[in-house]
Design goal:
4 domains; Alpha-Beta Plaits; 17 helices; Uridine Diphospho-n-acetylenolpyruvylglucosamine Reductase, domain 3; Uridine Diphospho-n-acetylenolpyruvylglucosamine Reductase, domain 2; 38% helix; 5-stranded antiparallel beta sheet; 7-stranded antiparallel beta sheet; alpha+beta
């Protein structure tokens, strides 16, 4: 997709204003907000921001944009990390935040149908009295549509899976304005191509998600969380690997290195030991939670852990996980004025120790402050490289550090991204990882979006 014919913008604006009224904006501040995610990537504001309230309005917007070959960029709340929402060729941003309703809760079948703009925390607040919950927790209070588009996972993926595993069905508006439904509420199907999983993770390059049907889970009878410091990174990671290999069904097992703990303490006013640390959470009956904790504790002690600091009361668990969720702000507290060059990889669990320790050695050699944090129960971890965004040399060296870590993860049989997605930031790594399969992705893209208007410049050029 090359820059569009800008003479189309005037007639398009008039058409969309007649459809949306004051829910169409060309305000500079609103446009700027919709062209920048939480990453270090350069912002690219759209020309217009549309705030639809229904699937019919989304379809009308796409028909108008398709007719004039104007790019379209779907937007949830802007918490993505690889430049997903940057309007690199301008165009129209479709902000789904006003499409935030829970449409149907099926308690007996443990599923829910929602609009894409609802956030995961608002969904769980709605479900609180039903005895059900939605477990996918990427840290940020992301929108469900955005989480589906980026195939999000997060802290509880080790037990409950990712968005790929928990989206049952979708309603999607295609680039030409056609509306399709993929999947059903049935828990399995052998009917045709799995189009649901095609759109989950497509990063808005194939259409706009307007409804999502999700799998729910029963709220556990008992929940207990703990923080456990270790003498070294090698000990902490070895403990993770053994815990998973023994089949302990932990709900969460998160790793923070000593640099990240220093930032967490500074930002969240906590007093955790500033040493490599695991954050655990256990779900189940009272008896099973106690058994899980005992087994995990035995493994941790075998690897030199100092002991568990328990958080059984809801308010204590909330404080613990709020501190964990605020790791981005904790990292930024270590270098005021810096931006975080955030990246992630995922490797087979047996290669986790090698990959993390190699990344740590690369950080030390680079001279950067770069905390490590990870959903290590499934082999996924992140670097937050703190850089001066105005220093080209720093950005270049950060990119080299990222390149080193990603290439090593791929050499170990891993992937260039466990949950952030490709966006515009990891295009070159996808080609190295997927090879000729990228050409198949291009053909699928061309079949669904022959004009190339859907979120151009993402996943591949």
């Amino acid at each position: 997709m090359s820059p569009f014919d800008r003479t189309a913008l005037g007639p398009l604006t008039a058409e969309l204003e007649s459809l949306l009224g004051d829910r169409l904006s060309a305000n500079a501040a609103i446009r700027a907000r919709h062209g920048q995610d939480e990453s270090y990537h350069a912002p690219h504001p759209p020309d217009l921001v549309a705030f639809p309230e229904s699937t019919a309005e989304v379809a009308a917007i796409l028909r108008a944009c398709s007719h004039r070959r104007v790019p379209v960029i779907p937007f949830g709340i802007g918490s993505s990390l690889e430049g997903h929402i940057a309007a690199v060729y301008g165009g129209v941003c479709i902000d789904t935040s006003r499409m935030d309703r829970v449409l149907e809760v099926n308690d007996a079948d443990m599923d829910v149908r929602v609009q894409p703009g609802i956030t995961r925390k608002d969904l769980n607040a709605h479900l609180r009295d039903s005895g059900l919950f939605f477990p996918i927790d990427p840290g940020a209070n992301a929108s469900i549509g955005g989480m589906a588009s980026t195939r999000a996972s997060g802290t509880m993926a080790v037990r409950y899976g990712t968005m790929r595993d928990n989206v049952l069905a979708l309603e999607v508006v295609l680039p030409d304005g056609d509306i399709v439904r993929t999947g059903t509420r049935a828990r399995k199907s052998a009917a045709g191509y799995d189009l649901t999983r095609l759109f989950v993770g497509a990063e808005g390059t194939l259409g706009v998600i307007t409804e999502v049907t999700l799998r729910l889970y029963g709220q556990p009878e008992a929940v207990s969380a703990a923080v456990c410091p270790f003498p070294s990174m090698a000990d902490a990671v070895a403990s993770v690997i053994q815990t998973i290999q023994l089949g302990v069904p932990v709900a969460r097992i998160e790793f923070l290195d000593e640099v990240m703990l220093r930032g967490v303490n500074r930002y969240s006013k906590t007093s955790y030991a500033e040493t490599p640390t695991l954050f655990y959470e256990f779900h189940g009956s009272e008896a099973s939670v106690a058994e899980q904790a005992e087994r995990a504790g035995e493994v941790a002690r075998d690897h030199g852990a100092a002991g568990f600091q328990w958080a059984a009361r809801p308010e204590d668990r909330s404080k613990l996980w709020t501190a964990r969720d605020n790791t981005l702000y904790g990292a930024l507290a270590l270098r005021p004025g810096a931006k975080a060059f955030i990246t992630d990889v995922c490797v087979p669990i047996s290669r986790l120790a090698e990959c993390v320790l190699r990344a740590k050695a690369s950080i030390d050699a680079s001279g950067f402050t770069a905390p490590i944090v990870g959903h290590v129960g499934d082999g996924n971890f992140h670097l937050l490289i703190l850089v001066d965004p105005g220093d080209r040399d720093e950005l270049s060296r950060a990119a080299q550090l990222n390149d080193t870590m990603v290439r090593h993860a791929q050499a170990l049989g891993g992937t260039c991204t466990g949950e952030h997605g490709i966006g515009s930031g990891k295009i070159e790594f996808l080609r190295a990882e997927a090879g000729a399969a990228v050409d198949l992705m291009r053909r699928i893209k061309a079949a669904v979006d022959p004009l190339g208007i859907m979120n151009p410049g993402k996943i591949f050029q």
